[in-house]
Amino acid sequence: MISEKISKSLNEQLNREFYSGYIYLGMSAFASKLGFNGCAKWFNMQYQEEMVHAMKLFKYLEDQGSDIELKDIKAPKIKAKTIVEAFEDSLKHEQMMTEALNELSDMTMKEKDHATYNLLQWYVTEQVEEEASFKEIIDNMKMVGDNGFGLYTLDKELGTRVFDINSMK
Ligand code: OFO
C-alpha cells in the first residue's frame, strides 16, 4: 500500500511517460518528413521504450492496489526545424523527466516508502542512459555538420536501432 500523495504523483508520472512517447512519435514523423528514415526509426524505438516506462508504472500502481487515473495526453508541439534540433529538444525533454523523477524519488525517501523508492531507482538509472544517448547523437551530428555523406551514414546507423523489451526489465 502506498500513500495517496505518492499514488497521485506516480499517476502524474504515468501521464508524463505517455506524453514522452507521444513526443517521440511526433519526432519520428518529423524526421521521416525530412527524409531521415533512420532517425525516424530511432525515434519510433524511443516511443516504444516510453510505452514500457509507462506500463511499468501502471503495473506497479496495480500491484499496490492504487487508483490508476488515465489523464489526457497533451499533443506534442514539435518546434524543431532541423534534425539536430529534434535531438536537442528531446534531450531537454529528458532533462525535465530526470528532474521530475528525482523529485519523486526525494518524496519517497521522505515518506520512507522503500518499495516505490526502489522502483524509481530503475528510472533514475535509465535516465542517465537516455540523456547520454541523446548527447552522443547530438555530438555526432554536430561533428558531421552539413556533410551529406556523413549525415547519410549517421542516419543509416541510427536506423539499425532495435527495440529489445528484455533489456528493459
Ligand atoms: Fe525517456 O523517459 Fe521515460 O522515464
Brief descriptors of the model:
Ferritin; 76% helix; 169 residues; mainly alpha; binds hydroxy diiron-OXO moiety
Distance between the termini: 22 Å
Return the structural class. Answer: mainly alpha
List the uncertain runs: none
CATH class, named Mainly Alpha
Tell me the total number of β-strands: 0
Tell me roughly what share of residues is in helical segments.
over 70%
Large-scale geometry: elongated
Chain-averaged pLDDT: 96
Series of H and E elements: HHHHH
Instruction: Give the biggest sheet.
Output: none
Computed over alpha carbons, the radius of gyration is 17 Å
Number of domains: 1
Beta content: under 5%
CATH-defined architecture: Up-down Bundle
Ions, cofactors, ligands: which are bound? Answer: hydroxy diiron-OXO moiety
Number of discrete helical segments: 5
What's the multimeric state? Answer: single chain
The CATH superfamily name is Ferritin, core subunit, four-helix bundle
CATH topology: Ferritin
Polypeptide structure, described:
The protein has a single domain, classed as Ferritin, CATH 1.20.1260. Helices cover about 75% and strands about 0% of the residues. The chain is built from five helices and no strands. The protein has helices at about 5-35, 35-65, 85-110, 115-145, 150-160. α1 (about 5-35) runs antiparallel to α3 (about 85-110) and α3 runs antiparallel to α4 (about 115-145). Bound molecules: hydroxy diiron-OXO moiety (OFO). Hydroxy diiron-OXO moiety binds near residues 17, 20, 53, 97 and 123.
